[in-house]
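dumping the sequnces here before i forget
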Amino acid sequence: GAVVSQHPSWVICKSGTSVKIECRSLDFQATTMFWYRQFPKQSLMLMATSNEGSKATYEQGVEKDKFLINHASLTLSTLTVTSAHPEDSSFYICSALDRGLWGYTFGSGTRLTVV
Amino acid sequence: KQEVTQIPAALSVPEGENLVLNCSFTDSAIYNLQWFRQDPGKGLTSLLLIQSSQREQTSGRLNASLDKSSGRSTLYIAASQPGDSATYLCAAGDTGNQFYFGTGTSLTVIP
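..and the predicted 3d for all of it:
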């Protein structure tokens, strides 16, 4: 079945540094990928929609300069948290649509802790 | 904007019981509905995907139903096991390929 590989699975970084999270679709082409964030005891919230070869679309309230999204190929999308702060500590997860299966495949998620 | 609600927020049952998790959504014009499982500290695992034209999907001990007109979906788990303990999320998908997630039901199956 469709697989989305997300790395790293967890990362601890110092405040002020940047962190890059990668999502790769391993056996299908993902023209669109979605990035979600989940705070403790809350539901997943869509941050942005990433389209291959074009600028990402950000949800209201999400700072595009802070959360840089790049979708340079049909199999890779990256989320870079720039100048991370403790309040950015969260669970980040990507998903891609496999149109062949009509379903969404999710990455395994990245637990970011900013200290 | 689509709003998805899951009831109950937490559920604790003894092993072997059958149980039902509820999901409701405000906008019936959904493209599909998906149920996920999330283990602590782990990512999402897709359990069942129901297209808008379907009424239910089954996989093993799991059965998910969809009633668009009433804005409801249920996930039925038969003969629950301790390994079923996790948070279960439902998500309503729209035609723009966006999912709207509920807050989840935390399930604990007691041996």
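The two ends of chain A are 37 Å apart (CA to CA).
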